[in-house]
Amino acid sequence: MSKTYSSAERAYREIKERILTGALPGGELISEGEIATELGTSRTPVREAFLRLETEGWMRLYPKRGALVVPIPSHEAEHVAQARYVVETAAVRALAGDDRSALVDTLQASLARQRELVADLGNSDGEALSRFATEDTDFHRGYVVAAGNPLLIAFYDSLRERQRRMNSVALHRAPMNVTRIVEQHARLTDLIAAGDTAAFDTALAEHLSGVHQLELRGL
Fold first, then answer.
1. How far is the C-alpha of 206 from the C-alpha of 219, rounded, in Å?
2. Residue 206 in domain
3. How far is the first Cα of the chain from the last one, in angstroms, to the nearest whole number?
4. Helix (H, G, I), strand (E, B), or coil: what is residue 59?
5. In contact, 32 and 50? CB cutoff 8 Å
6. Matching CDD domains, A to Z (predicted)?
7. Which of 46, 69, 92 marks a domain boundary?
8. The whole model's pTM is what?
9. Which of 3, 102, 114, 133 has its Cβ near the most Cβ atoms within 10 Å?
10. Is residue 1 situated within a structural domain?
11. In the 8-state DSSP scheme, what is residue 126?
12. What is the residue range of 13's domain?
């Protein structure tokens, strides 16, 4: 692998991670020069990274002006939340009748990590929020994986990057909501343990709607 390619890949991964965590918020205009300086590289790998990110829909390039970080369209946020609802409720229904003790233990461990991150928020420069967003994503993925349907898992994973970004945006918009989010996660865990799929469906719809400030039609 050439040095140029390695630098371009590193620039791509770093810039994309900043977009997903909200460090580069939607609507911000950035330049090749400032990113190259921050990464300690030349403009060429940054330019290649920008082009790749534009192809994926994360950026919009304006010659001689810079690159605009594309904001999350309101319809995309709603579509992702609706898709998540369909997959997550289907996964929990598929678990009905199964021994869910191992899954509940996994979810409880995630809840413990979430509570630790909430406690760290006051002493953090934003890193704890980013880690919480990732933990949130992993919490929900846990019961999708437990259902054991590879098609559901593959589709859910295709939403992961958009889900991470949505979580980061929601948390940075109202960071004090994290305590409420953990309470809702605990409620979802209890309903999975009880096998109450109908109540889980309702609780999940309320959770997704509240976190992302959406009115999910048809749910």
1. 9
2. yes
3. 49
4. strand
5. yes
6. WHTH_GntR
7. 69
8. 0.80
9. 133
10. no
11. S
12. 7-69
Q: What is the CATH number of the domain that holds 202?
A: 1.20.120.530
Rounded Cα distance, 17 and 33, in Å: 18
Task: Tell me whether residue 218 is in a domain.
Answer: no
- Between CA 215 and CA 219 the distance in angstroms is 9
DSSP 219: -
Q: How far is CA 213 from the centre of its chain?
A: 15
Domain CATH code at residue 63: 1.10.10.10
Q: For residue 3, is it left (φ>0), alpha (ψ between -120 and 50) or beta? A: alpha
Residue 66, SS3 per DSSP: strand
Clarify whether residues 47 and 91 are in a common domain: no
The DSSP bridge partners found for residue 68 are 29, 60
Residue type, 3: K
| DSSP for residue 9 | H
Angstrom distance (rounded) from CA 200 to CA 159: 21
| pLDDT tens, the chain, 219 aa long | 445 568 899 999 999 999 998 889 999 999 999 999 999 999 999 999 999 999 999 999 998 889 999 998 878 888 999 999 999 999 999 998 888 999 999 999 999 999 999 887 766 556 788 888 889 999 999 999 999 999 999 999 999 888 888 888 877 776 668 889 999 999 999 999 999 999 999 999 999 988 877 776 656
CA dist list (Å): 151 to 82, 91, 146: 17, 11, 13
**Residue 167 is assigned to a structural domain of this protein:** yes
